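Posting here for the record, re: nicotinamide-adenine-dinucleotide.
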Amino acid sequence: MKKINVGIIGCGAIAESYYIPALSNHKDKIDRVYFVDRDLSLANNAKRNFGSGEVSDDLDKIIDKLDAGVVCLPNTLHYSFSKKLLEAGCHVMGEKPLTLKPENGRELVEIAEKKKVLLSVNNTRRLFPSYQVVKELIDDGSIGEIKEVYYYEGGEFSWPTKSGFYFTAADPKGVLLDRGAHVLDSICHWVGGKPELIKSQNDSFGGPEAVADVTFKFKDLVGEVRLSWLYKQENVYRIIGTKGEITGEIYDWNKTELKLNNKSSEIRRGKQKVDSFSEFGNILVTNFIESILGNEELIIKGKDVIDSIEWLEECYNEAKPFETSWYSI
Ligand SMILES: NC(=O)c1ccc[n+]([C@@H]2O[C@H](COP(=O)([O-])OP(=O)(O)OC[C@H]3O[C@@H](n4cnc5c(N)ncnc54)[C@H](O)[C@@H]3O)[C@@H](O)[C@H]2O)c1
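Prediction output follows.
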């Protein structure tokens, strides 16, 4: 069996906590891992954690060695680095959001098709067993026609970013891009398409927004998303249909609750129990490697997330500030 060479492009927080442990489980299928970071000390740390490999401060210097690349860079770099990898004939696992602009996402999908390589993306919540149950319950009509969707997520920003790009990017985008890349994608996936934006509001005064609200409609349903990096919320989703509703805690990823209008209520669990967040890294990386080897189909394809990228862009383009009546007194 041919072993593959994999590049980790960006050796920051997600590479360290998610991809390196996951790749460590596949040493029998990997010939060499290349750790690329403009900060060589981080690339060297990553190599030490993995136990072997090569380091570089520049993808261009090692790209000809790679069969696949995992793009763990700040969001503004996803498109250009993924494009470079795909054009060089490498399979790509992208971090979310796949790209900032939907046309760039579509272009990556096209290049991957043309080059006959794989393009996957870590929209992790598609792997949550509870979210897969939600999708099944919606699709099999258990709650009837969906009328309302609510998704509330909030907590203090505490992710251990190495570069701090979340707050320092030249074109700063905050919680809507960070959490919203997951949330809007989950909603598109559940309802089966891109909702129409009714209203988008956030608290940006030029910097990255820390609070964002989005209201939307899709066919006969209306919905609301509330996101915050500043304050705690319930962290729940609720989908109400004509026959019942589905509710769940976002990070309680093994179960969801189905309540029917006749008052019966039951807990539904996914097929697979997942004990820790990093296990999703293993599921994703295993699927990526097995798909490269021709043994599996990608669970999350790049093209699956284009609707949500388009919706995210609309939310930013249409965003209005929250009412701040005290400023006009
Ligand atoms: N799917 C998820 O749940 C999840 C969770 C966390 C982060 N992420 C995503 O992962 C990506 C990385 O986030 P992070 O928190 O690990 O960031 P980070 O700041 O910790 O790491 C980014 C790394 O990229 C390196 N870098 C920056 N510019 C570079 C360049 N031009 N060439 C080479 N290296 C460069 C930095 O030195 C840094 O080490 C982001 O897109 C983020 O959205 C996804």
